[in-house]
Amino acid sequence: MRFHRDPISVAEAQRRILAFAGKNKVEHVPLTESEGRRLAEPIRATNDVPHFPKSPYDGFAVRAEDTAGASLEKPVELEVVGAIACGDAPDFTVGKGQAARIMTGAAIPEGADCVIMFEMTTENEARVEKVVGVKKEMKAGENVIEVGEEKKSGDLLVEAGKRIGPGEMAILATFGYAEVPVYQLPRIGILATGSELLMPEEPLRYGKIRNSNSYMTASQVRQAGGIPVLYGNLQDDPDEAVERVLTILEETDMLITSGGVSVGDFDIMVEVFKRLDVDLLFNKIAMRPGSVTSAARYNDAFIFGLSGNPGACFVGFELFVRPLLQAMQGKPETGLKEMEAVLGVDMKKPSSFPRYVRSSWKIEDGKAVVYPVGQDKSGVVTNITDANCLMCIPPGGSGVAKGDTVTVLMLPYNVGE
Amino acid sequence: MRFHRDPISVAEAQRRILAFAGKNKVEHVPLTESEGRRLAEPIRATNDVPHFPKSPYDGFAVRAEDTAGASLEKPVELEVVGAIACGDAPDFTVGKGQAARIMTGAAIPEGADCVIMFEMTTENEARVEKVVGVKKEMKAGENVIEVGEEKKSGDLLVEAGKRIGPGEMAILATFGYAEVPVYQLPRIGILATGSELLMPEEPLRYGKIRNSNSYMTASQVRQAGGIPVLYGNLQDDPDEAVERVLTILEETDMLITSGGVSVGDFDIMVEVFKRLDVDLLFNKIAMRPGSVTSAARYNDAFIFGLSGNPGACFVGFELFVRPLLQAMQGKPETGLKEMEAVLGVDMKKPSSFPRYVRSSWKIEDGKAVVYPVGQDKSGVVTNITDANCLMCIPPGGSGVAKGDTVTVLMLPYNVGE
Questions:
Q1: Rounded mean pLDDT of chain A?
Q2: What residues of chain A lie within 8 A of the CB of B368, using their CB?
Q3: In angstroms, what CA-CA distances link B112 with A214, A285, B50, B57, B89?
Q4: What is the pLDDT of residues B225-283, one digit of tens each?
Q5: Start-end ranges of CATH 2.170.190.11 in chain B?
Q6: Domain A337-410: what homologous superfamily?
Q7: Counting one residue from A and one from B, how many pairs have CB atoms under 8 Å apart?
């Protein structure tokens, strides 16, 4: 195990993580509890749609041959032998010279082969009860939705790995998935390091600040489909640290820490990694912020050492933890969705590493334009509240200029809601 | 109360709903349970940030006057009188000719007025213990983050009504909000109507279909911050219907029904509205799909009668129920976020009403382009699974053509995740 620092690219770091990403176990949950989960199997049509010939309109089900010669001037009169509401299984046959009143979505009765809309009948002007005049010649099959016309039994409707939202819920219900196969939610232990940290409920003390990374990370974990488990703040005692880390790994699927990974005097996670003799995946990434982001495997579990800087911690989660959580829950394509956008302002800060800047994109004159959010300088997290993307600025040169095209990684926060 | 149908515009329908929208009660929840809720009060800084003068680097805290004349060739030697880690409240003073080792984020000790980075000292080459050589002249205040430099106590950080995500969690934790004031979640009763409907767990029967709208709506409600309460399917019996509706209104804040609102023979909600003598807000909207969407007030509660057609039910929720749920939870701007996009295909279907087409937008060559999803014709809901927006097509003429600019309402589904 080497603890010196070889910076690797973001893409290489992601590859090293995903190489060990296994899918979670599958469990079956009731339909009403499946929202937000990821499908462990594709959804297929379990029956033809419709599964009975169906009327698309309110009207009369008739035999096309009986309407020969019908016209506005000379309606053909048919005997009304019944009415079929939605949900009825018609228990009669439409014979020669007969018609059945039928509602939208109702099953076509035996004998009938087409549906004439109310508007083309004498429905509202009938002189004799139980008789309807048809004002138009019909063809067999006209206004009948045939069995399987919309979907065939077995048709693939939604791919495995898709997150269940309104559309998926509707399909699952339609096809009788009262129980839904989904991937288990990963349980993620979250631990902050640093003896300078107070809990949110503690009063401030000179020199100390409150832990914010754990709560931010918990929200990111939840929105990425994990269950966050908060383990408070770790003081800078290596023996205690090793013990806490081992306990957390027993109780959860993964540990995310923040802080303690740089090269300072009191970098506890570096010491923990050494004492546990972890399999280090990386401890330096060619990126800003968050170059000290570390990841390791211990037995079959991941330990992420995110930066203690809130902005870097946020970015580290999005670039490295999110793809893993997606893969564990069966999402075929991992990582944040990419798009191109035009830079709305100059970003002239030179950097030897690629930069991932918390930003906001919007459409201006039909074009995607992206702006950094808040003061770029500030270490505080207030600008995360406005970010809907990370802007990727390539290294070298003197930064990028207004009007340049940049790649943008779309965040799921601050979108439509 | 009039039950004839006067079509009103979508905007007018939204106005009539919002005219009655009151904010929910405020409750305080623990920070860890506040994620996804909407803030009932703005978040303000409860202290200066930093609240003590702080070092932005690892280095030595010194007195600028002591560094006069220091250079790479002629470092000034200072006595190291202590070390300050993050979180320490320094209990000593840096006097004339003295220095204190200091870590990033640690408090500047009394007496010192600047910080020199390790790189500009003899840190790694010290010949004498407890002595450090400073290789550069410093100015007072250099590399010191002053009290309140990032945020002042009382600064507005996040507006009321904002949904709590990772950035908001970080800020709440930073400023000691162990309990967070949020709006109560509205409880939404959901009821499907139609004797053709089966429950998802029931086997298919001829002429019948399974209820999918309730499950779709439940997902929409949850993602809009409500608590869905499913009440199953209502059969077409008016007495029972009235009783069920009254029970649901006692147990929830609002009722959403699907189906039973058109002009057919068995439109149960029309009958329920009549018997309860509701205050009808509207029962016809100039839009496709979902022109029969209805809304009413009964005592202080809303009843929404969404269309039984799944696509129309989906759109009806997004246009009319979502803004109300947002307003009840204090969101200042209600409704789906709008943007302009270029149409990627011809949509030549003429319509006398504005159309809201389930669609997907993406960026192509830097421009936002929008495409309808799935077969436009299909009444099935399979295309909702791919939609990330509703495309608004104005009425009249012969539809819109590829390349035309259209307004797009962004949905919070199928975004980054």
A1: 93
A2: 363, 366-368
A3: 33, 35, 17, 15, 14
A4: 999 999 999 988 899 999 999 999 999 999 999 988 776 656 889 999 999 999 999 99
A5: 59-134
A6: MoeA, C-terminal, domain IV (2.40.340.10)
A7: 325
